[in-house]
Amino acid sequence: MSNAAQIEQWNGISGDSWVAMNERLDRQLAPLGDAALAALAPRLGEHVADIGCGAGQTTRQLAEAVGPTGRVVGLDVSAALLAHARARTTAANVVYVEGDAQIHALPTIDAVFSRFGVMFFADPVAAFANLHRALRPGGRLAFVCWRPITENPLFTVPVDAAVAAGIMAPAPTDPLAPGPFAFADAARVTDLLSRAGFAEIRVAPHDERIGGGDLEEALELGLRVGPLGRLLREHPEHAARAVDAVRAALVPYVTPTGVLMPSATWIVTARA
Q: Which of the residues 2, 18, 65, 245 has an alpha carbon 20 to 30 A from that of 166?
């Protein structure tokens, strides 16, 4: 099953949006990536693949962890995000590759990591089997993915506020289709990894407040990323109507250190 639709999306408006908002998105997601990195526990000298590496924040962290004798491959389908990653990376032990993890032949590696990069496969079993083939015997996998959208107000608050203000609701989507919440069901994640050949699979819940930007930064993210962002890209004529409603909905999450909202994720680990 081809990943062509996701490749087109991430080489179009999704990739462009993430490049434009990268600094804010990295700040928002960094604590969750750090939790998955701690679960992976990369070691000096290891060779690691960062799947769906995006603009390379976690790739650079992995490069520092494995040291100059290690090596990190950052793999992504988005040319725009990879160009951004290359421009921000000075480490000599990093290489960025434009490719589809579902079929790309990786070199032999000790570990696979991903921060929200593995939920977009058209054929998850084929993708994880491909990653499994690249791992040395006993090699490790660790990634972070979202639990159900209903547990993540980061995504629901902006769109619910806009709908309450009279904007049309987003069309229903297939919960198992490639997308941010495709791995919301822990049992499904375990089944997919098991069918791909992994063992010692653990899917652990992780809860943490994330954000850190001020109210206007959180507002811009809410309008450009997630379900409301997708809706407004399709119907930009509604954007002005959403602004005040979304801003008001975010006010309860303002703290002395910025807008912080609960997040609900899985930290997934397994071995080849």
A: 18
Contact 49, 75 (CB under 8 A): yes
Closest by CA to 180, choosing from 31, 52, 62, is 52
Q: Is the pTM of this model over 0.85?
A: yes
pLDDT at 17: 82
Can you read off the two tokens belonging to residue 72?
A: 């990190």
Q: What does the alpha-carbon distance between residue 134 and residue 58 come to, in Å, rounded to a whole number?
A: 20
- CA dihedral over 159, 160, 162, 163, signed as positive or negative: positive
Helix ranges (DSSP H) in the chain: 4-10, 13-20, 22-40, 57-66, 79-88, 124-134, 153-164, 186-195, 215-224, 226-234, 239-250
Say if residues 129 and 196 touch (Cβ distance below 8 Å): yes
pLDDT in tens, 203-255: 999 999 999 899 999 999 999 988 998 888 888 888 888 999 999 999 999 99
DSSP 251: G
Q: CB-side exposure of 205: number of CA atoms within 13 Å? A: 11
